[in-house]
Amino acid sequence: MRDYELKRGAGKVLEGEGLRRIAAEMFGDAGVDGSKVTVSYGAVERMIAWTDGKKLFVDITMKSGVSDSVATDTIKAFNAFLEKATGFTAKERSKRAQDAAKKSPA
User: Fold this and answer.
1) CB distance 31 to 39 below 8 Å
2) pLDDT tens, position by position, 50-95
3) Average pLDDT, stretch 40-51?
4) Are 27 and 39 in contact (CB under 8 A)?
5) pTM of the full predicted structure?
6) Would you kindly state where each structural domain of the chain is located, as residue ranges?
7) Where would I find the H helices in 43-89?
8) Which residues pair with 49 in a beta bridge?
């Protein structure tokens, strides 16, 4: 499971049906299991996403042995989902993760 920081104000966008709508827009179909959004798409066997208003949590299970085109399409869709849900680009998310790793005790 990974967690991603949310840009200020992004938590409000994810409230209610917001997270499910973003997932459906990026992956075509998104189900709901309680307060968690579930998706199956391309190389993603199952993705479960939820938020606490401050962070986005994503638990993902991947399929092995998919074609390169399916893998590439899946990565693009997943990155677009994260960018829309968190408000941060891939580069910004990477920078924040590196900064957090430097701050945490080893």
Assistant:
1) yes
2) 999 899 999 999 999 999 999 999 999 999 999 999 999 999 999 9
3) 95
4) yes
5) 0.89
6) 2-103
7) 68-86
8) 37, 58
